[in-house]
Amino acid sequence: MEKVLITPRSYGKYDKSVEDQLKNAGFAVVGNPVGRILTKEEMKTWIADCVGVIIGVDPLDKDVLACAPNLRAVSKYGVGTDNIDLDYCKEHGVEVTITRGANSQAVADYAFSMLCACARKIPAIDKYCHAQDWTKRMGLDIYGKKIGILGLGAIGKGVAERAAGFHMEVLAYDIYWNEDYAAQHGIRYAKPEEIFRECDFISLHLPLTEQTHGIVNEAALSQMKKTAVLINTARGELIDEDALVKALQSGQIAAAGLDVFREEPPKNPELYQLENLIMGAHCAASTQGASMAMSQMATENLVRALVR
Questions:
Q1: Which residues of 85-120 are buried (b: 16+ CB within 10 A; e: fewer)?
Q2: What's the mean per-residue pLDDT of the chain?
Q3: 169 φ, ψ (degrees, to nearest 5)
Q4: Are 206 and 212 in contact (CB under 8 A)?
Q5: Cα–Cα distance, 51 to 279 (Å, whole number)
Q6: With contact defined as beta carbons under 8 Å apart, do 189 and 172 qualify?
Q7: End-to-end CA distance of the chain
Q8: 35-50 pLDDT tens trace
Q9: Which are the catalytic amino acids?
Q10: Three-state secondary-structure class, residue 15
Q11: Coil, helix or strand for 287?
Q12: pLDDT tens across 193-223, in order?
């Protein structure tokens, strides 16, 4: 029986029927054997005799793919494909699919929630109150302020629509600009430099590419307002983390909320000491609804690619 590997830990957690769909299609299901993101060497071992894989953020570069000579399909559990060697897949006839739109609302909820938590210092206030310290801590206003969204795809649009409820002025950047959507929702196009310079809140929703790698660097941070809040629920490598740590330590910007890091969990001890940084465990898409939708779509995509 042909095998398919499933690496995301939340796959099928709230809908057990998805594994049955794979089994009914004639496949033996190999689950994540370690209960965490697999290393490159582990991926080489577990994918070796598989014809398909439902992949999360585990490494799937050409070295791993070369260890799977029978692989015919890669079904991404999410939308970011920066951990997958797409050129290798194309060259070797391996079909790659994504679960477009399945988790966009959950991530948009999380991004805007993190924005509010950073602005109003909710985690710090909660921590001190639990220590019976009732000192009032001054936060930042959100209503009527200016937000810049880098990446106006499904998630970026979701954040823009939530910002509208706070009567925020929305600036956005995207390489594929949808003028009709922007006009309908009152969104103004702006280049990244303008967003860094003018906005009170900046939320990152870009794919990781050579052009976007390190887009938030020392120069960008130096342009931001001292009251600026930076949110990243996309990819950790969009930000120069060392430069961000310095900016948060010095008060160059007010706060940041990061759900993604260059390495997860991050090893830089300075990140853990910053009270003006809210950290997340790459869990923006971790809701029951999003998990069910991604599991179902990823399964359907894989079966469709393998059974023809």
A1: beebbeeeebbbbbbeebbbbbbbbbbbbbbbbbbb
A2: 96
A3: -80, 125
A4: yes
A5: 37
A6: yes
A7: 17
A8: 899 999 999 999 999 9
A9: 235, 264, 282
A10: coil
A11: coil
A12: 999 999 999 999 999 999 999 999 999 999 9
